[in-house]
Amino acid sequence: MPDRDALLLFLATGLALNLTPGPDMLYVAARSASEGRGAGVASALGIAAGTLVHIALVAFGLAALLAAVPVAYTIVRLAGAAYLVYLGVRALWRPSALAERALAPASRWAVFRQGVVTNVLNPKVALFFLAFLPQFVDPARGSAALQVLALGLLFDTSGTIVNLAVALGASGAAGRLRRSARAAQLLERATGALFVALGVRLALAGRR
């Protein structure tokens, strides 16, 4: 691990980054608003699990492949964009809020898996960690891979706490709207549209 001052700087920087609204936060907020607190929490935990995959990729050098091979980066990026668009289109086309009440809600395990896939298929997360985490690694303090893993876990923990807070806040605010069938239907459609927009944004983002 880095020394105390570097670690404090890392924690402060990581918290600031995690508090900045981004695709993961928007995804959790949308899921919480449309499907409730449980779905939001499951999404936040799914994203946390997906982030662990990116951290492992950076720690063991595999993320460098995405940076070095444009085709690999493009394939992963487009797959992630397609998955988000799929989730959005499905939300837009499923039955109205009134009909949905008669159906069983999506299982928390399914929502968790979708959060994992959404995060893993965003190569920008891997490239972010590839650029960010090594800046705080001190070669004189032992294995660089272990330091990256430890720093990544701290960053992921901070991000998960923020996303869980977003899930609780968004679900509470949306709960009042869901009492109205019309508002619930509009909320559902807005969530679908947001997923589609996130997918299109990822598809067009390139390496910027």
TrEMBL record:
<keyword id="KW-0472">Membrane</keyword>
<feature type="transmembrane region" description="Helical">
    <location>
        <begin position="6"/>
        <end position="29"/>
    </location>
</feature>
<dbReference type="GO" id="GO:0015171">
    <property type="term" value="F:amino acid transmembrane transporter activity"/>
</dbReference>
<keyword id="KW-0812">Transmembrane</keyword>
<feature type="transmembrane region" description="Helical">
    <location>
        <begin position="145"/>
        <end position="174"/>
    </location>
</feature>
<dbReference type="InterPro" id="IPR001123">
    <property type="entry name" value="LeuE-type"/>
</dbReference>
<keyword id="KW-1133">Transmembrane helix</keyword>
<keyword id="KW-1003">Cell membrane</keyword>
<dbReference type="GO" id="GO:0005886">
    <property type="term" value="C:plasma membrane"/>
</dbReference>
<feature type="transmembrane region" description="Helical">
    <location>
        <begin position="110"/>
        <end position="133"/>
    </location>
</feature>
<feature type="transmembrane region" description="Helical">
    <location>
        <begin position="41"/>
        <end position="65"/>
    </location>
</feature>
<dbReference type="Pfam" id="PF01810">
    <property type="entry name" value="LysE"/>
</dbReference>
<protein>
    <submittedName>
        <fullName>LysE type translocator</fullName>
    </submittedName>
</protein>
